[in-house]
Amino acid sequence: MQVTFGDAEYNGKRKQTRREMFLAEMDQVVPWKGLLALIEPHYPTSGQPGRQPYRLETMLRIHF
């Protein structure tokens, strides 16, 4: 099926979800780099036997 000009224009635009708006606002409000710098020296590193830790940024975002 051929894509029309109207379809092509509409494909680029979609409504932003509440989740996307919330995450965009959190990125603006929370100083992620500063928090990562504070926590990083105390966070476990990978390379040791056993379960590998999640990335620090992922864990920080989960708990916020």
TrEMBL record:
Membrane-crossing residue ranges in chain numbering: none
Domain spans labelled Transposase InsH N-terminal: 15-64
Highest rank taxon of the organism: Bacteria
Pfam families assigned: DUF772 (PF05598)
Protein name from the UniProt record: IS5/IS1182 family transposase
Organism encoding this protein: Xanthomonas vasicola pv. vasculorum
